Amino acid sequence: MRYLLIALTLAASSAFGQTVVLTTSNNTDSLRVPKEPCNLTRTVNWAFNGDASAVCEPLRFWLVAGTSCSDEPSGTFYELTNYRVPANELLTRRTGSVTFEVSNLPDLSCPAADTEKEYRLCASVEISSGLSGCNNSFQKDDLSLVYDAKPPSAPSIGTVASLDQALSVRVNAPSDANRLKLTISRQDGSGSRSVTQSVDQSLFRMENLENGVTYRLTARALDEADNESVDSESKEGTPILTRGFMDRYVEANGQEMGGCGAAGAGVAGGWVLAALGFWLSSRRNRS
Fold this sequence. Notes:
Residues 1-17 form the signal peptide. By secondary structure, this protein is mainly β. The chain has three helices and 16 strands.
């Protein structure tokens, strides 16, 4: 189970020592909620810094459809009633957490495919307005939530370079993605495996492959809410054996590897022997 942590802080105001500030743990302006599983849990962390004796009604939390919060729950909302915090608790319990599921988002039939809807997470507390007492004076704030069930656009596979027992693959990411998933398999579909990387790491190195075997490559894009795109167009690649001069010379049993005639054989052979002598000398010097 994954958790997004939201820091909820009630800080000092100039008049009565309280305001409500709602921020995410990574200081973003909003949270994107995936379409499923519908019982996926989100956790809200809150903290209270203020005069609890000035609190008239419990600190309340609710989810509302739309782009704004009222002083109290209204419109199409879902109140997190199990997490009301009265003033007497705030005297000693200055922090806590609020938990809700994706299915708690109001006016939503979860899962709702290919849908993007805006919500607000609201926090509000009624406080005393001084000598006049409690007269519907609220301190509140809200945080944007987006139910995101829209998949990103499909990526495309750019270059595929053949390496020794590996392939180097460049994937072009769409603008609405934050991760890329590259899947590789043999032509018959066997041996499939995937690697996921950030869009900032769009160059993949697929290793532990068999030289001379053709592999099929497809890519998908993923967004912040874990929605996956459809497959990109597939491409193929074949790892190749890469060897240096001495490897090829030894494999040829020390014979010339070109198609030169007898006239050029002496020159070519002398060059090969000179190179071999230099190589053997270098090995003796290193040892």
